[in-house]
């Protein structure tokens, strides 16, 4: 394979849906706060509703930031897989470190599972919080890395096919 590289970006359609839902919920929460303030209710209830509203505002802001983010979620090339979705910036999961790639279902969605040969060595590169989450998932029987196929415009079978092609060319 001659210098082939595939860059996968987050689906803008999904981001627009997230933004629309977050803005609708923010509007509903704003109305609820206005309604609750006109009643004689405990401030705890109003505070909880405001906290939920702030969560939806945060979701809307993050969706807008991601809409304008030009950085790919994943980059697949002859060296391996990199990108902000799996490892920190500048780190790469090399093909020699990957044991197997497979599709598995989880809650009405298909995920790409990536198992690595030495998970502990790979996980040392990650921040503490992400390392704990991945270890927790691994203890429940899930693969070291999981990639939601709903984030990309590529089908799960195409995604696995691309990864298999890169691995096969690497072995040749």
What do you see in this structure?
This protein is α+β, with helices and mostly antiparallel strands. Helix content is 49%, strand content 20%. It has five helices and seven strands, in the order βααβββββααβα. It has a four-stranded antiparallel sheet with strand order 1-2-3-4, with no helix packed on it. Strands 5-6-7 form a three-stranded antiparallel sheet, with helices on one face. Strand 2 (74-77) and strand 3 (80-82) form a beta hairpin. Helix 1 runs antiparallel to helix 2. The longest helix has 26 residues, at 12-37. The chain starts with a strand and ends with a helix. The model has no long low-confidence stretch (mean pLDDT 83).
Spatially, the strands of the biggest sheet line up as 1-2-3-4
Radius of gyration using CA atoms only: 20 Å
Q: Which sheet architecture does the biggest sheet show? A: 4 strands, antiparallel
Structural class: alpha+beta
Order of helices and strands: EHHEEEEEHHEH
Care to count the β-strands?
Answer: 7
Task: Please indicate the count of domains.
Answer: 2
Q: Bin the strand percentage.
A: 15-25%
Fraction of residues in H or I helices? 40-55%
From the spread of the alpha carbons, the general shape counts as elongated
Mean pLDDT equals 83
Measure the end-to-end span. 10 Å
Poorly predicted spans: none
Number of helices: 5
């Amino acid at each position: 394979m001659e210098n082939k590289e595939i860059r996968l970006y987050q689906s803008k359609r999904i981001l627009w849906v997230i933004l629309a839902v977050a803005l609708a919920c923010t509007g509903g929460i704003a109305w609820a706060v206005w309604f609750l303030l006109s009643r004689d209710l405990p401030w705890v209830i109003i505070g909880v509703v405001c906290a939920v509203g702030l969560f939806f505002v945060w979701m809307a802001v993050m969706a807008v930031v991601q809409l304008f983010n030009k950085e790919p979620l994943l980059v697949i090339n002859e060296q391996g897989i990199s990108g902000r979705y799996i490892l920190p910036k500048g780190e790469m999961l090399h093909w020699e470190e990957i044991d197997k790639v497979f599709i598995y279902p989880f809650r009405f969605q298909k995920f790409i599972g990536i198992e690595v040969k030495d998970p502990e060595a790979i996980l040392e590169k990650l921040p503490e919080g992400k390392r704990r989450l991945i270890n927790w998932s691994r203890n429940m029987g899930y693969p070291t890395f999981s990639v939601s196929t709903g984030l990309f415009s590529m089908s799960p079978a195409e995604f696995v096919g691309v990864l298999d092609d890169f691995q096969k060319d690497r072995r040749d």
